[in-house]
Amino acid sequence: MHRIHAPRGVLGYGQFAHRCLFEVTSIRGKSTPTKSTQKQTATGGTSTFLSDRLAWTDAFKTANEWSPYDRLTNPHRMIHNAANQNQPPVHHSAAQDFLQQNSTNQNVVYQQSGYGSVAATETFMEEPHPVVERKRANFDVSFDDFKTAFSNKSNWELIRALSVLRVCSFEVVADHSLKLMSTSQRVLRKTASDWLMKKTVYGQFVAGETTAEIKEAVSRLQEVNVGPLLAAPMEDDIHTHHPEADKKFDANLNTILNGMRLARELDPLYPMTQLKMTALMPGDLCALLSERCPHPSQSPHVVEAMAAALCGQHLNIDEVFGKEVPDMLKHHLEQGIRRVSEVCKLAISQEVIVMVDAEYTYLNPALNLITLAMMLVCNEPARRSPLIFYTYQNYLQSTRDVMERDMTFLENSGVGFAAKMVRGAYMYKERLLACKQGYPDPVHATFDDTSAAYDAAVTSVLNKMAANPRHCRMIVASHNEKSALSAVKRIQELDIDPSGGGVFFGQLMGMADHISCSLGMNGFLARKSLPYGPVAETLPYLSRRAQENKAIIVGARRERALLKSELRSRVGIGS
């Protein structure tokens, strides 16, 4: 099989992937384009990703469009080939074309049939799965029920939570947390220091080091109907001139891929992970891309070129970004695209949700660009709910405009939109950077302004979800009770199914348990962000979280009061 190269400036990624359809070799032989697809290609007109994918469906004549979740909740789904009952069904999305990994359905065997193509056959019919009984949501949510919220915690865990949250409430501790933890490692030596950390700070905020420990942490959360959102801490700041940059980024990639596989094992219905893009490519490269493409959704040709590169096509970097890019940065961009492509492949084959973190404002346009390209590859609404989420930091004044532009771009492309909605964690550093470099403060003036922006953004996405649920997903990541209750109220008003897989609620492990557990026990899809790994590797993560979230930790009086009430009730001294 020979390669097809998309003529630059003529075919977008969607049309190129459409042409690749004619190169796909099925198990029984080469597929033949239908008249409708021949006509569409011949016109050379602009077509959206959705129309291309509908054409692919027509060409393959297959009804195999169901995700593992669909199979689980629809046990009587029959997979067949409409054109030929004896011919095995073939997966046919653009993203599936470049898959080389095994499907999560172990009855499906992928076979490499040439460049950029993978055919799949179903070796035998699956046994019907039992229909999942979902708990009907209770919209009368209260965060005052400390008995329910902390029902899965031992007395020792209550005492630990109270102690750690109290100590961390002192700003001097948050500001010098890494130094304090490093001193502990040096003075007490590794074994004693690790033991102490696991009994205190590490045990409060980290899921564990081994797979068994992580599974135990997840099992405890599931007792109160809270699921995992895995987050492997990767805090190294690696730049293009680092002598072992590629080695470190490849190691990070392996960690991310293994985390995605573990997420599938821990939560087969909604496996999810989060990642930092700067764990896969250098920060200075992201800064350059941000300068060259400051508004990605307003430069669709750049996003589509990046998406095509994720599917294995050559990216003319100088042509796409308008100016000559140094060779060293070109190398790291090509390698970064390769790594992100591997994440996309596994996300599709395992149907794992991947939430891409936003970082600093001078990096975010590049992170947004790459994430939008991932969405074009992975968020195909004809086959599945969106898998790739981008993080929107609502403490930034520009976030609402960015989000609305992204939603419009993806809708025009026929691709699903998904958002991780946060207030933001870099406020202090952003303001300091703006002051030093003499540009306007990008952060909202007050906390109330940020909260209003956050709630308005959540409402906007919920409105879109109500109108087209298959095309939209969101996680309401907030430790603020009012914002959580506001979202619950709007979900009820719009008649959105809280357990339907469209809306999730998220909090950090070890914090705001009364919110997570109360939502989970009332039938909402609550998730805890679970960092994991060895003590030494998680220290920088814990320090960054302590500094970035010190306003939350300092203000956690409400949670500490509820913890005290539960502890007092257990020892019989009243509340």
Describe the structure.
Helix 21 links the parallel strand 10 and strand 11. This protein has an eight-stranded parallel β-barrel, surrounded by six helices. The protein has a two-stranded antiparallel sheet with strand order 1-2. The protein has a two-stranded antiparallel ribbon with strand order 3-4. The protein is globular. The chain has a domain of 110 residues. Helix 9 crosses helix 23 and helix 13 crosses helix 17. It is α/β, with parallel strands linked by helices and 575 residues long. The protein is built from 25 helices and twelve strands.
Structural features:
alpha/beta; 575 residues; 12 strands; disordered N terminus; two-stranded antiparallel ribbon; 8-stranded parallel β-barrel; single chain; 51% helix
How many β-strands, per DSSP? 12
| Secondary-structure class | alpha/beta
User: How is the largest sheet built, in terms of strand order?
Assistant: 5-6-7-8-9-10-11-12
DSSP helical segment count: 25
Unreliable stretches (pLDDT < 50, length at least 5) are 1-96, 98-133
Shape: globular
What's the layout of helices and strands?
Layout: H1 13-20, E1 25-26, E2 29-30, H2 35-43, H3 49-60, H4 68-73, H5 94-97, E3 108-112, E4 118-122, H6 146-149, H7 155-168, H8 171-175, H9 177-199, H10 201-205, H11 211-222, E5 226-231, H12 245-266, E6 272-275, H13 283-292, H14 300-310, H15 317-321, H16 327-350, E7 353-356, H17 364-378, E8 388-393, H18 399-412, E9 417-422, H19 427-437, H20 447-467, E10 472-477, H21 481-493, E11 503-508, H22 513-521, E12 526-531, H23 535-548, H24 550-554, H25 557-571
Parallel strand pairs: 5-6, 5-12, 6-7, 7-8, 8-9, 9-10, 10-11, 11-12
Antiparallel strand pairs: 1-2, 3-4
